[in-house]
């Protein structure tokens, strides 16, 4: 699978995350440590498509800091989903003979039994 189109698309998106008390920010299921970030401030996250890294911009004691970190979890299966044969589909039992109104069908069948169609 060619991930270049995925990186092109994701590079257009900007995410915002709050920096925790422990100077971390979460994106998806991954937690990133931002060493110089001020706790309880906002971090801006973009993707650099050429270097394939996350770009964090956050406040520090004097001004702002731009920092790049490698993307931790970017599996193809998470992007594409499970193959159809492995997908867990709910089991559905359709009513037989597959009509919505069974009572109406029953009356029609009884009517045809008592009044046969002649041509």
Give an overview of the whole structure.
The chain is an alpha+beta fold. It has a domain at 4-80. The chain is built from 3 helices and 6 strands, in the order αββββββαα. The mean pLDDT is 81.
User: Radius of gyration from the CA trace?
Assistant: 29 Å
Order of SSEs: HEEEEEEHH
**Low-confidence parts:** none
Oligomer: single chain
Main sheet: strands, sense, barrel: 4 strands, antiparallel
> How would the global form be characterised?
elongated
Residue-averaged pLDDT: 81
Order the strands across the largest sheet as they lie in space. 1-4-5-6
Continuous helix count: 3
How many strands in all?
A: 6
Q: Into which percent range does the helicity of residues fall?
A: 10-25%
Query: What percentage of the residues does DSSP assign to strands (E)?
Result: 25-35%
The class by helix and strand makeup works out as alpha+beta
First CA to last CA: what distance?
63 Å
